[in-house]
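Following up on my earlier thread - several people asked me to post the actual chain instead of describing it. Fair enough. Here it is, all 350 residues.
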Amino acid sequence: MAQFDVLKEELRKQPRTWLVTGVAGFIGSNLLEGLLDLGQTVIGLDNFSSGYRHNLQEVLRVNPRYKRLFHLIEGDICDPAACLEACEGVDYVLHQAAIGSVPRSMLDPRMVNQVNVEGTINVMLAARDQQVKRVVFASSSAVFGNSPTMPLREEDLGAMVSPYAVSKYTDEKYAEVFSRIYGIETVGLRYFNVFGARQDPLGSYAAVIPQWIHALLSAEVCRIHGDGETTRDFVAVADVVQANLLAATSTLSAGKHRVFNVGAGRRTSLNELQAMLSESLTRLRPAHRQHAAAHDEFREGDIRHSQADISQIAGELGYCPVPELDQSLENTMSWYLKRLNALEGVARSA
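Reply from S.P.:
Thanks for posting it. Predicted structure:
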C-alpha cells in the first residue's frame, strides 16, 4: 500500500486539527477539501484578497458534515494577532497564503516582501508560541532561478530572476533559522506548476493552464509567451495535497527543517501543453473547433526550462505523483466544463 494511503487511514482513525492559511485560494481550498474528506478539523485563515468565498462554498456543499469540521477566521497573515488566534489548538499548519505572481512581484516588490516574508514570519512565530507540531509552507520552483541543471535537485540554485523568487527563498532561510533557534519543525515545499479545479482563469496574473482552458472554452486563441519551447513541470493539485499531508506528518530524516521539490518529475513544452488541452477538449466536446495558438514576446522574469527532481520527497516521504499528465489535464478540463454548463443553466433559467 502506498504511503499516502496508509496516512489517510491513520488520519481517519485519529483526526487532527489543521490550520490552512489562504484557505479560500486555489491550493488552499483543495487542501481544505482533502482534509475534510478525511474527517479532520480545519481552521481556515484568509483575508480574501485573492481567494474566493465561492471556493469555500463549493467545498462545503460536498458533504453536510464538513461545516461542523471547519471554522473560518477572516484575517490577514500580516496581522500577528490574527495568526496567533488561528494557531490556537492546532496540530499542523499548512501555510499557503501569499502573493503568488512573478509579474506582480516585478511591479510591486515591497508588497510581495510584506506579505510573503513578513506574513510568513508572523505565521511561524505564532506556531512557535502556540506549540504547533509542524509548519509546512509553500515555497516555489522560482527559487531555482536560471539554474541550467535538469532535472532540478533541491541544491541546484541559480541566479534568481524575480522578487517573488527572493521572497520564497527568504522564507526557506527564516524557517531554517527558526527551526535551529526556536526548535519548531518546518518543511518548505517548492511547488512547480500546479494546476487543477478552482484555479482562477481570469485576471492579469492567471496561470497558463486555466487561462488557456478559458480561452478554448470561449473559442478564443491561446497566446503563448515566446516560441512555445519553454518547458515546465506541471503537477496536479491532488499531488500537492498529498505532498502537504505527508510533509506535515512524516518523520523528518535530518533535523527539524527540510525543503522538498513538489512536481511530477517531467518536462512539457508550452506547445505540447496547448495541443494536449485542445485534444482533451475535443474528446470531451467533439464539436469543439481547434484554433492555432498565437505567439507573443517572451515575458520578463520567466525562466526558460523547469523540471523537478522528486527523488528526495519520494524517498523520504513516500510521495508518488500521478504519472500521466493527459488524464489529469482531462479531469481539470472536465471540471471547468461542468462549471461552464452550470453557469449556462443558471443564465437560461434567469
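Residues 344-350 have pLDDT under 50 and may be disordered. That should answer part of your original question.
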